[in-house]
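Aim 2 progress update. The chain analyzed this quarter is reproduced below.
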Amino acid sequence: MYLCRQNTRKYTSDKSEFDDNMEYMSQEGYDKIVAELHELETVELPRVKDAIAEARAMGDLSENFEYHAAKREQGRLLGRIRFKQRVLEHARVIDMSRLDDGAVMLLSKVEMTNLTNNSRMTYTIVSPHEADLHEHKISIKSPIAKALLGKRVGDIVEVQVPAGLQRLRIESIRL
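Predicted structure tokens:
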């Protein structure tokens, strides 16, 4: 079962119990977004505001490239800040101590065999904001993760990916 820290409702591995408006994530992912938001608000935004003020002091704004570039950068930063704030507003941190590793769910580390080419792969299923293929973390919204959700060790799933149909056998599930 999942137990969200910001919420006392318990969640089983049944996908239907999740609220699509919430952003379920690990504490590590939550902390990373908080740190990035803090960096944007306290370092990046003041730097851009200083650049705007400096460019404005140069005079004619209609032909001032530095001013327009700084304003574009400010708009981009404000958009990123609003996006991160919205993610955190809907974030629910999953309490890892309440998770069951019997079935594949969010934050499960799944080792599987690709029966098509007999290769092994291991992925951790995470929120879209934590996904990073270099760290073998795939989004819960990816085709492979969707196919694996709720499955158990020994189950075989077929999933359509850009490279074609893959048959995957689950070898182990860990947290």
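The chain has three helices and nine strands. Residues 1-16 have pLDDT under 50 and may be disordered. These observations will guide the mutagenesis experiments scheduled for the next reporting period.
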